Amino acid sequence: MSPSTNMPDEPSNKTFYGLFAGLTAFIVTVVVVVSIMFVKRHNVRTRERLELEQRIEFLRRHRENMLVAIESGLKHSHLSMDQIKGLPRRELAKETLGGTGGACGICLADYCAGDQVIDLPCKHFFHGLCVEPWLSINDKCPFCNQHVVEQRETAKGESP
What we know:
The protein contains five helices and three strands. By secondary structure, it is mainly α. The longest helix has 73 residues, at 3-75. The chain is rod-shaped and about 120 Å long. It starts with a helix and ends with a helix.
């Protein structure tokens, strides 16, 4: 074959190889971009799923804690009427009040001579009509939050 016939073939081979290389580079680029997008999308879904599972677990624990708190509160959160009636009561005397007199921590009315009060074991006292409804739903002092029944039993055990 003559060199003149080989010459036209060479540019077509170069063109073919150029197109092949360009097409290969394009395909590789597309595959890489699609792969990156897939991985990012998968990571986002995985992260969202993990966050959702964490929220669900938090809500389960919170629900369990609330149920335990409610159950324990229902078992021992108030005094019976017999326990309330058994608390020491007294009538305030003018000498007891001193100069300022003080006020009931529940109704905020000033104490007056002759007021009927209930003494709690923690040494706080309140109008009987004010503290009885409180103690019927709660077994703790409205001020110091100490258990009324446990304090009373402890005080009985310490006295001779």
